[in-house]
Amino acid sequence: VCAASQDFDFFYFVQQWPASYCDTRRSCCYPFTGKPDEDFSIHGLWPNYENGKWPQNCDPESSLDESEISDLISTMEKNWPSLACPSSDGVRFWSHEWMKHGTCSGLGERAYFQTALDFKNKSNLLQNLKNAGIHPRNGEHYSVESIKKAIEDGVGHTPFIECNVDSQGNHQVYQVYLCVDSSASNFIDCPVFPHGRRCGSKIEFPPFSSTDHDDF
Ligand code: 5GP
Ligand code: 5GP
Ligand code: 5GP
């Protein structure tokens, strides 16, 4: 591993709201392990530069060695499910995240996944939202500011909220970005927020009920 592979400023720790991945025109596919819980799940831990750019694929020779994370697999199935189609066991998604982002993180494979799992627990997003009266519910609209405040109150740092659009055209919470210092120890204030992923001022936070999606 060359020194350049650890040359970045901070991480984005990105979590997705599965209901919002699934209720778009593109829909989704549940993993082989079944419908994920109604909870945020991990998308990835992404090294980033303060100028908004990022390194990726820092070791083209590497590949995911499942034997290094065998004891984490069941926790990852629960907290880091893949909702892309076709249905899978998650290994493709984890492998993609490891190759593209993990190899630039300065962490070993096992530490990369373990760290992301730890930050998901620490962020406790859904509970922080519920504590502020923000519940997944159809037809209810929340301001981006109220969602950010609820998470800031729980985590101690302001997140970035990314929205997408459901099949009826409603803007909704899709991903939550928190920032982590480059040694992967603590949440920090984001040095820069991602560009060009605005939300409307009032957005939905859809429930993940089984009638909300098409499974192929
Ligand atoms: P999208 O175009 O769907 O927003 O992002 C596609 C992929 O590009 C993401 O899955 C992620 O791998 C990478 N990506 C997008 N935005 C960022 C960013 O701001 N920082 C980093 N490190 N990666 C990003
Ligand atoms: P990124 O490059 O943006 O980090 O990751 C996105 C890639 O992972 C895409 O190729 C996407 O198809 C795949 N992927 C697999 N499962 C998921 C999932 O549950 N959520 C997202 N956002 N991407 C997924
Ligand atoms: P600003 O000029 O403050 O960067 O952006 C103001 C606009 O961005 C407002 O429409 C506000 O609702 C929106 N906004 C504020 N915070 C966020 C966020 O975390 N994510 C997204 N996507 N939009 C935001």
Notes on the protein architecture:
The protein has 216 residues and is an alpha+beta fold. It is 26% helix and 21% strand. The protein contains 6 helices and 7 strands. It has helices spanning 18-22, 73-79, 91-100, 109-123, 125-131, 144-155; strands at 10-16, 41-48, 137-143, 160-165, 171-181, 187-188, 202-205. The longest helix is centred in the middle third of the chain and has 15 residues, at 109-123. Mean pLDDT is 93; it is low at 1-5 and 212-216. The structure holds guanosine-5'-monophosphate (5GP) (3 copies).
Percent range for β-strand residues: 15-25%
Say how many strands there are. 7
pLDDT < 50 stretches: 1-5, 212-216
User: Termini distance?
Assistant: 41 Å
Helical content band: 25-40%
* Structural classification: alpha+beta
Summarize the topology:
Blueprint: E1 10-16, H1 18-22, E2 41-48, H2 73-79, H3 91-100, H4 109-123, H5 125-131, E3 137-143, H6 144-155, E4 160-165, E5 171-181, E6 187-188, E7 202-205
Helix pairs in contact: 5-6
Bound molecules: guanosine-5'-monophosphate (3 copies).
Offer a few descriptive terms.
216 residues, alpha+beta, two-stranded antiparallel ribbon, 6 helices, disordered C terminus, binds guanosine-5'-monophosphate
